[in-house]
Design brief:
mainly alpha
């Protein structure tokens, strides 16, 4: 009887996790293959770097308006449409032989991908009951770590057996499969409310302006919630900016060979997998506040250890620690904001704050890159790790305040004025 109830309770979450897993693996295969296609076409490492810039610019462009659209459309059907759109555009990539056209297609694909990410967050929050979210997020983290390991391996196998184009087609197929799976998922929308929203509102600059005001209003009314959100986003910004110097730090500062750096990356992958597995096993026994706070501090500690390393062994320990702890921090953070941001405006809030995060990532990555050239790589990496540690300590202090404990176990009552 208990098993029957468990299977019924986890039926749709399991299907959704399967769909997310397929999409995650496909994304790794696609982007690795795309890097090789551009490199083979141009022979330029700079052209490959351009892919990362295009993706960042596309995310910036999308997040400023997509939340307004997401909150007003049916999440299930939007996810299906975005999966199919990505599949169609990805299939067409190998037929373009101009770098400009490829960049343009990547820009459009990233729009769909960014929208899918924000839409899926809202859909998951509506579908998964509050008492299941922490477990679901831990399993999702485990799937993401599996994709991090298996995606590049599958891509490598495809390159051996065929070509980068084959890997591209496999990802397009994975997205179509994801769309088919999503079709079997329940519709979580309030039909009357959704129809009223679509009929009475058209997306215009005036509507976007009102939505931005709504996000600002929410942020002012719930300062603590958004402070935690911003502090964690700052962690992501510093991690990304520091990671941009990772290869240069390993090869130029630590004087490691490319092979030894490859081993370090593999150790990081093992850390992610071990951390995700342990997280999935013990997640219900750890308070959400400690998942975010301690997970962030240990992650930052791993970066500090890496930045202070002078030998391969210490660097390897740093890589393992920082990747191990990330699963815990991410699970806690996802659970926190799913429980504390109103689902009806979640698309707008997550998208607009995602815009801020993406903008800061670009700014700090450029600053770190220039500083590494003008000063030194080690100085920049050490500085980034120390800033990260300070941010994580501030986040931990916010997380463990006794007066805010309820926000980590129950959803608050939101004001109707929103």
């Amino acid at each position: 009887m208990r098993l029957k109830k468990l299977l019924k309770t986890w039926r749709y979450p399991s299907i959704l996790l399967f769909s997310i897993g397929i999409s995650s693996v496909g994304s790794w295969v696609y982007f690795i293959a795309l890097n090789l296609i551009v490199l083979n076409l141009t022979g330029s490492a700079l052209a490959v770097s351009g892919l990362y810039i295009i993706r960042a610019l596309s995310t910036l462009f999308t997040n400023i308006w997509s939340g307004s659209l997401i909150d007003r459309l049916n999440k299930k059907y939007l996810m299906i449409a975005l999966d199919i759109s990505q599949s169609v555009f990805i299939v067409s990539l190998p037929f373009f032989f101009s770098l400009g056209w490829i960049y343009g297609m990547v820009f459009i694909i990233t729009i769909a991908s960014s929208m899918y990410h924000s839409t899926s967050i809202t859909y998951i929050t509506k579908l998964i009951p509050i008492n299941q979210r922490k477990r679901f997020n831990s399993l999702r983290s485990l799937l993401d770590s599996g994709a991090f390991l298996t995606g590049p391996a599958i891509a490598g196998m495809m390159f051996t057996l065929g070509s980068p184009n084959m890997a591209i087609y496999i990802n397009a197929g994975a997205l179509l499969l994801s769309a088919l799976i999503t079709m079997r998922m329940p519709n979580v929308e309030s039909t009357v409310k959704l129809e009223k929203s679509i009929e009475t509102t058209r997306i215009s600059f005036k509507v976007l302006k009102e939505d931005w005001k709504l996000v600002i209003r929410f942020s002012r009314q719930y300062v603590y919630i958004m402070a935690v959100y911003l502090l964690f986003s700052m962690m992501i910004v510093m991690m990304t900016a520091t990671d941009s110097l990772e290869a240069a730090f390993a090869t130029k500062v630590l004087s490691l060979t490319e092979g030894e750096y490859g081993v370090l990356v593999s150790i990081a992958g093992a850390g992610v997998l071990v951390g995700s597995l342990l997280n999935a096993i013990i997640v219900e026994k750890i308070p959400t506040s400690w998942l975010i706070g301690m997970g962030s501090i240990i992650t930052a500690g791993g970066y500090v250890l890496l930045s202070a390393s002078h030998t391969f062994f210490i660097a390897a320990v740093g890589f393992f620690v920082l990747s191990f702890a990330t699963a815990f921090a991410n699970t806690g953070f996802y659970t926190f904001y799913q429980n504390n941001i109103p689902v009806d405006v979640m698309g707008r809030i997550v998208s607009l704050y995602g815009f801020i995060e993406a903008f800061l990532i670009i700014i700090f990555t450029v600053i770190f890159g220039i500083s590494a050239e003008l000063i030194s790589i080690r100085f920049v990496v050490v500085s980034g790790a120390c800033i990260m540690l300070l941010v994580s300590i501030a986040l931990f202090i916010c997380n463990v305040q006794p007066s805010k404990a309820k926000l980590y176990t129950h959803s608050p009552e939101f004001k109707d004025s929103l």
